Input
Amino acid sequence: MNRKSITFYFFVMVSMFPVIAYGDFFNDVSNAYLPGEVKSIMVGEAEAPIVEVEAKTPLSLGTAIIFTEPFPSSLTLAEGNSLADLLAEKGWHVVISPVNLPLAPMPSADEAAASTPENDAAQNNQADKAIHPRSNQLTQYLNFETATSALTLQVNALNNYLQNRSGYRMVIAQGMLAATYFSAAELQPNLHPDTFIAISPFWPEDTTNNLLVNTMAKAEYPVLDLSLSAFNDWEASTTLKRKIRAKNELKIHYRQISIPSNYLAFSIKETQKNPQIQMIANSTIGWTRHLGW
Output
């Protein structure tokens, strides 16, 4: 095998590492807890872990579902744990559900080896036209429609698992997961929660990100819109638009709150309470009490 071939296969293997590591995240979730602390539900044909935190009051208000992801654009598992503990103290039974957003398929080594210079040039030209220089490159690996379908499947699985639970149903998600949930609930009204806590919702593509403004304003369920300051430009570009559109659509049960941002490195668990999560929990409890719960 010549040097050129060795170099090619090396870069193919390196490019696969993020996908492999991402696929192992669910195993990491299970290994981060003691045996018996992690339960599983069937999402389609795959098994997905969930972590339940029981309410710490005699009477439970209902169930809060917290979606987490191993990226700073969403709630990490450590932040989800902290938020779950704070909500449990106020009477919520909490289900933490890690989400595995599907990545765009990568070409196999055989397909890559069989590519011709003409095909490579055509693909490069198409990519240059499709991706704006200031756009986020995440859109090369994440597709909004595919992500919506995957989250819809997971929410349906959670609803089936929790169908006998009484009380209110509250859903909490951040970043791209929040934007995806709005789309999923719009397409399937049976997914509507009693309230949705959207933390800095955004999608790194201009058309979809602006569409979020209208989707949120027309949502038929109460929405608490929490905006983390200095979170990212995508979210900041729609913060005021979301508030104005909700007002113009006469959306009664809507509130927007700005929360100072606090960046943390990713970890499975954390031992200290995050002040930002404390503010999110306080805002959430204040919102539910405003709703009369």
Remarks:
- Strands lie at 38-43, 46-53, 62-68, 92-98, 168-174, 195-199, 223-228, 254-259.
